[in-house]
User: Fold this.
Amino acid sequence: MSLIDPASSTAWAERPYTAAIVLANGTVIQGYGVGAEGEAEGEVCFNTAISGYQEILTDPSYAGQIITFTFPHIGNVGTNPDDIETTNLAASSGVRGCVLQAGITTPSNYRARQSLDQWLRARGIVGISGVDTRALTILIRESGMPNAVIAHHPDGVFDFDALKARARACPSMEGAELARAVTTTQSYPWTEQRWVWDEGFAEQQNPQFHVVAVDYGIKRNILRCLASAGCRVTVLPAYATAQEILDRNPDGVFLSNGPGDPAATGEYAIPVIREVVGAGVPVFGICLGHQLLGLALGARTIKMPHGHHGSNHPVMDYTTGKVEITSMNHGFAVDRTSLPSDVEETHVSLFDGSNCGIRLRGRPVFSVQYHPEASPGPQDSHYLFKRFVDLMRAHAASQPPVNAREG
Assistant:
């Protein structure tokens, strides 16, 4: 006996669409709503990581963007408080939406505290599932990252003409200054170290060096890696002045990751970075911090066609001759052809040859485009935090004794 009555008019009824993503070129992709209801606009990118979706969705560097996950099954392990990367747990996510291939399943992990769907709703992130993410990824790869509106209406009613007009009117990421929207508003110390399985996060003991971290959209695991490397960290807002940074007598200054166009953030950040570099303090930059350092040293930055977003990017370290697999998230890059003669290229992408690292000749100043803290991603690049500490140690040893300086 059949379990479905073929005579029933509803037996073969298709599930109605409750979500859509509308691109600026007029393309409409329909699917099934997940997460928050409503509409959001942003630049659509794709991420190739196969794990760490919660860390990705809370990375402030994704502010103003809609993330297409190329891995088909997102949400299987649920969500938990430990895997959030934004430093302000009360802040809303910078990411505007997410695009999934498969529907979200019930969590099946001992660390899960909430399903991804519930978590997306709580954080106000609009999502869509049932999308051919391979086709959308190919479109982005071939035509660049488009602006779009993502919409989740449980009743399935959409004004596509209005959504198309809104997508066309969405501001470009070029010229967008987004660091101020995600940075801290006050200084604070950081002492939490990296997560250890079955132990959690340990508190720092007896740090050796004091690092001022400038927060352009900093991730929690960067701060944990600095703390685990023996650094007492003071976090300052993106708009902190050089005087405010140097008045804290840091052994080193860290320039964080963050969202938006580095040239726009550079309007207020570049003079500060130049003054800090001029003071002789060791400097280490990551992602947006790398781009800002490049601008401060005289290079240019460029918008990439589809950027680098994922945790499988091979990078050559010219200083060691080794290749590392890295985690990346950026839509802009330092133009390697614009590097001044006193700036050395130290790392390069083996995917497309784009610049992934620089250092200032004769100074304790360096940066990388990728994310050595991972979270998510491989841990091949953790050595860079030790490199920063070694620079601070060498710099401290080169300074004259306090009495000699005062005399």
